[in-house]
Design goal:
Elements: H1 2-21, H2 27-40, H3 49-52, H4 55-66, H5 72-104, H6 109-122, H7 124-134, H8 138-166, H9 170-180, H10 184-194, H11 196-210, H12 213-225, H13 238-244, H14 248-260, H15 266-289, H16 293-298, H17 301-326
Length: 327
């Protein structure tokens, strides 16, 4: 894995250099762009494939370290509002995708369910977690994944720009991005591209959505199992759900608790901050390498319209709610 990891680190270093000397934009956005440029021109070299695939590990490790910057008392102060905000919009997103997919664009119901889980919870991870319980076909899974990745790339580029045009406060932008964007990586990247505080709130809000992956997988498994004679939902068990659960969320909470108890000095926190910023930079080079423009072009138009319609509705509603609750 070493050559690929070195490639990620090198890309991160180049992104930081460009962002500080040439390009007046966030180094994280530059990192994603460099990764996408490599993947869609020369391609990721075979000798580096294993190492570059570790970018999710670096992202998750960075999120754990970022817990040291989160004040538990601040979270508890807005905890009930944030929880209602997360659960409410997760439910709204899920229902809108299902209704539009089945009644407006009339796509296959299992594909619609994969899109609903992917958009409302946590992108590709939710698609994988739900697919076993609903017995989705491999082409349906691939279709849903390609659609979600398209919106990951689009929202990562658009959200920071919209936030600056509207001059949104940091916490408003962070909670808005955490609710209405799709996957964890782009949410974190967009948040920190806007500001450090926005990045922290975007991450916390997105992690709140992620923990519902097991609940959504179980509900879908029950729904589809009841519609078949055998009454079974293949692939769903407590062990399977634990395997799908984003365990870095636990590490994030533990780190935030340790920091809030005063067990870390200011020097420790500063060191951890440098650590997670470096890990994010490396991770987002790898995130860019997953953006396949050819695959995006081949994605059918109806699933794209399903997610786009939901994104527009949820984005507007969640922005207004963020302004009311946290502005």
């Amino acid at each position: 894995m070493v050559p690929g990891v070195v490639l990620l680190v090198l890309g991160g270093g180049i992104a930081r250099l460009l962002a500080t000397t040439v390009l007046p934009i966030s180094e994280l956005i530059v990192a994603v762009g460099l990764g996408a440029l490599l993947a869609n021109t020369m391609g990721v070299p075979e000798w580096g494939a294993d190492g570059t695939a570790t970018h999710k590990l670096w992202l998750e490790t960075g999120i754990v370290l970022m817990g040291a910057r989160i004040a538990i008392d601040q979270l508890l102060a807005v905890g009930p509002s944030l929880l209602v905000f997360i659960v409410g919009f997760l439910t709204i997103s899920l229902v809108i995708v299902e209704v539009i997919a089945r009644n407006v664009f009339r796509i296959n119901e299992r594909l619609g369910s994969l899109l609903a889980a992917g958009y409302s919870v946590c992108g590709v991870s939710a698609i994988v977690a739900v697919s076993g319980g609903i017995r989705a076909k491999s082409e349906q899974i691939a279709y849903a994944v390609a659609t979600i990745l398209l919106f990951d790339a689009a929202t990562l580029a658009v959200y920071p720009v919209v936030g600056r045009v509207l001059k949104l406060p940091d916490i408003v932008f962070g909670t808005w991005a955490g609710i209405s964007m799709v996957s964890t990586g782009p949410v974190v990247a967009a948040g920190f591209a806007y500001s450090p505080q926005a990045g922290e709130w975007a991450t916390v809000t997105k992690l709140g959505r992620n923990v519902f992956i097991g609940v959504v997988a179980v509900l879908y498994a029950i729904y589809y199992a009841r519609r078949h004679d055998d009454g079974r939902a293949e692939g769903i068990s407590w062990r399977y759900l634990w395997e799908q659960f984003p365990k870095f969320v636990v590490g994030f909470v533990v780190m935030a608790t340790v920091a809030s108890l005063g067990w870390l000095s200011s020097k420790d926190v500063a060191l951890l901050k440098s650590g997670y910023q470096g890990l994010f930079l490396v991770a987002f080079v790898g995130l860019g390498m997953e953006i396949d423009l050819r695959e995006m072009r081949s994605t059918g138009i109806r699933p794209v319209f399903v997610v786009l319609s939901t994104l527009l509705v949820v984005s507007v509603l969640s922005l207004l709610a963020s302004i009311v609750l946290f502005g």
